[in-house]
Amino acid sequence: MQDMSFKNQFELDDYIKVNYVKALGAGREGACFLLPNDIVIKKLYDEYVKEYVLRFKNIDNPSFVFPKNVCMIDGYVKAYFMEYARGESLFDNIINEVKIDKLVSDLKVLVNNVRELSKLGIETYDVVGKNIIYDGNIFKIIDTLRYSWLSNRDEFNSNIRMIMQTVYESIIRGIPKDYRVHINMDMRTDMYLLTHPDEVIYDLKDQASEAFDEDIHTLGDIKLLLKK
Prior knowledge:
The protein has about 230 residues and is α+β, with helices and mostly antiparallel strands.
C-alpha cells in the first residue's frame, strides 16, 4: 500500500465504501475496515501529524501491528493502513481450544517479542483483551498508535506486566477460584510468572489431573473438569 491523499472527508469515506470487504469494528480512535489483500484501513476520528502516526513504520516485530501508510486530508492524517491480524481476540474462545503445548509455545514467542520491542525503548499502551489477536499460531497486538518511544530505556517490565496480565485474565476466566489462588496473587507482580506462561498453564493442568482421571489437551478441558 502507498500513502494516499484525499480532497475531503467525503472522498475518503467514498473510497472506503467502494473498497472495503467488511467492517471490523470501532474503538476510541476510529473505525477499522478490511480491504482486499488483507489490508486494514482505520478511519480516525481525530487528525494527526504523519510523522507521529508512522514513527514505528519500520519496526519489524511479528507480534505488533503498526501503521504502515496513511491517508492525508489538508496535510493531516485522517486514516492509516496496516496489516490484517487474522484470528480472534482474547474475549473469544480460541485460547481455550488450542492444544496446551502449542499455546505455551506461542505465548513464549509473545514474551520474547515483547522483550525485543522493549529493547528499542518502546512503551506499550492500552493492551486490553480485544487488542490481542490469536489465530492458533501467533499472538498479534493491534491498536498501537499511542505507543511511546522512550530512548535509552528498556520498558520490558512494564510492557510484559500489561500484556501478560491481560493474557492471564483470559486464561483463568472460568476457572474456580479455589484452583487459582496463588496465580491470582502472583501473576500481577511476579516477573517470573509473567515471563513463564508454562508455569501458570501447566500448574492448572496438574491441578486438574490430580483431581480428575481424564485426558487433558486444552485449557477448555481444564475449565470443564474444574467446574465439576
